[in-house]
Every structure is written in C-alpha cells, then in structure tokens.
Specification:
- By secondary structure, this protein is mostly helical.
- It has one domain.
- About 40% of the residues lie in helices and about 10% in strands.
- The protein has a three-stranded mixed beta sheet. It has a two-stranded antiparallel ribbon with strand order 1-7. Strands 3-4 form a two-stranded antiparallel sheet.
- Helix 1 packs parallel to helix 3, helix 3 packs across helix 4 and helix 4 packs parallel to helix 6.
- It starts with a strand and ends in an 8-residue tail after the last helix.
C-alpha cells in the first residue's frame, strides 16, 4: 500500500499482526482503561529472524519508523475529518511512545510488559514494544503498523466519545471495525493505495489474531474469535464507520 505522497516504491499493507496480548493492556487491542496490564497471550511468536522475513522484503527499521509516522499522520487526518463533519473538535492522541524494556513505560502507575502495545487513557498515549513490533513487521508485513496504530487509535477515539462497554470483547470488536473503517476510507479517499494481494494478506493475518478456543467471550481481556475479528474489521473496511455502532 502506498501513501498519497508516494514517498517510496513500496509501502504495502501486506499482512496483519500475527499475535495479540490478552487483557486490559494488550497488543493491538488495549481497552481505554488499561490500568491492569496482562501478560502476553500464550503462543505468541517471538520476534522473527531474517529467515522468517516475508517475501515482500519488509525488513528495514527505517521503513518501520516511517510507517509509524505515516500511519499516525493518516489516522490523525482521518479522525479530524470525522470529528469536523460531526461538528466536534478533534484532539489528537498526545504521543506515540516506543519502549524496549518491561517497566520502561507505565500506564496509570502500572508498568507495561514486553511484547505489547496499548492505548493508555490515563496519559492519552499509545505505547508499543519496539523490538516486538519490528519483529512482527518483518514477519507479517507493513500492514502491521497501520493496523496497530489504527486499532489503538480507535481506543483513543472511544475514550473521546465516552464509549465504554460492559465487556472487553465489545470494546475490542468495535475497535477492529473502526480500524477497518479508517483503512478502507483512506483507500477510498486515495490517501492509501492497495497493491495486488493486500486484501488476501489481511484475511490471512486476521485468522491468526482470534482468542483461543477456550477463551470465554465474557472474560476480561477477550477480543473475539478469528471469525468475529475478521468480520468486524472487514465490516468497517467495506461499510465505513456506520457499521461500527458509534451512533
């Protein structure tokens, strides 16, 4: 996927995040009150080596860093337009913070663990383990960055709109839908352009992000099955925010 500015030959949304961290603070899915970070979901892959790098050549740390900048810029522009259209003032998330060690960044007085990404409502920021994120970026593709930012930014938007569901799974599936809307609408607005195979790679990656089969849907930290998450994301991608229950 290429940005409107066409800053380089390939900025492809080539896949999806391969693992999530369950709980109130979790990879690609922290809810808007992450004061009780949870450990990494069992079975999440370690950061891949060069032999696990995808064929699309997604390896450069510089490319990862630029994708973070691009994804943040597009998300801010997208949500500013949505708020303006509804007559509301938009306030961007305060910052996006990488970290390398457990406890290097805290949210609500609780240290964030490794292999994690989260929106922290207490400080209005997104934080992510940069080593884990770059590893997933290399293994899955640069779609990881756009989805990561899109999903966590959606949690910030939920906070701004005062949305708080009784069950984590409701919060998470709505954020998946909102991330899909942000990406689909950005493609339709030509802020991003799909390359051949991108949607197939989205679907491939989404199959890897569901809850374990024995995870109760009502448990704190539940995100939804692979099928539920896939359906939520593509519902937003194809039908925009009207499909996400924000009204």
């Amino acid at each position: 996927m290429t940005t409107r500015a066409g800053r380089r030959g390939r900025n492809t949304l080539a896949g999806f995040v391969a693992a999530l961290v369950a709980g109130a603070a979790c990879a690609v899915g922290g809810v808007s009150q992450p004061e009780e970070p949870a450990p990494q979901r069992p079975g999440a892959p370690a950061s891949p080596g060069a032999g696990q790098t995808r064929a699309d050549g997604t390896t450069s740390v510089a490319e990862f860093q630029q994708d973070v900048v691009d994804a943040q810029s597009i998300a801010e522009r997208y949500w500013a337009e949505q708020f303006r259209a509804s007559g509301q003032r938009f306030r961007p998330i305060s910052r996006i913070t990488p970290y390398q060690r457990e406890g290097q960044v805290s949210c609500g007085g609780q240290p964030l663990p490794r292999n994690n990404a989260v929106y922290c409502s207490a400080g209005d920021f997104i934080a992510y383990d940069v080593n884990w994120s770059v590893g997933a970026f290399r293994q899955v593709g640069d779609a990881f960055v756009f989805y990561l930012l899109g999903h966590e930014y959606a949690h910030g938007i939920q906070t701004r709109l005062g949305i708080r569901y009784s069950y984590t799974i409701e919060q998470e599936l709505q954020a998946d839908c909102m991330a899909g809307a942000y990406l689909g609408d950005s493609v339709r607005a030509k802020a991003l352009a799909l390359d051949a195979g991108d949607l197939d790679e989205f679907r491939e990656g989404l199959l890897a992000v569901g809850d374990a089969p024995d995870q109760p849907w009502f448990a704190e930290g539940s995100h939804g099955t692979a099928e539920q998450r896939t359906e939520a994301f593509f519902r937003g991608y194809e039908r925009s925010l009207d499909a996400c229950g924000l009204g």
